[in-house]
Amino acid sequence: MDRADDADMTALEIKAYELFLATHVEPNNLQAREALASWVKQSPAHWRAFRALDQHLYEAALLLAHAQHDLARQQ
User: Fold this and answer.
1) Which three-class secondary structure state does DSSP give residue 7?
2) Count of domains forming the chain
3) Does the pLDDT value for residue 14 go beyond 70?
4) How far apart are CA 6 and CA 62, in angstroms?
5) Structural domain boundaries enclosing 13
């Protein structure tokens, strides 16, 4: 991938994050869920961006859990 592709993917990941976050801020907001689902279905690039975001969030959760475990062990 070149820089333009990287920038495009980053922009898509940010959009995915915005839509994803809206579903968590208001979990009962059907419009937010529908907007995310609709956006993801628009193109394979949107789906890949959403999956990349999901992977980043998963890795961040693992890092946080590990840091908390280390902190608890040190105390």
Assistant:
1) helix
2) 1
3) yes
4) 25
5) 3-74
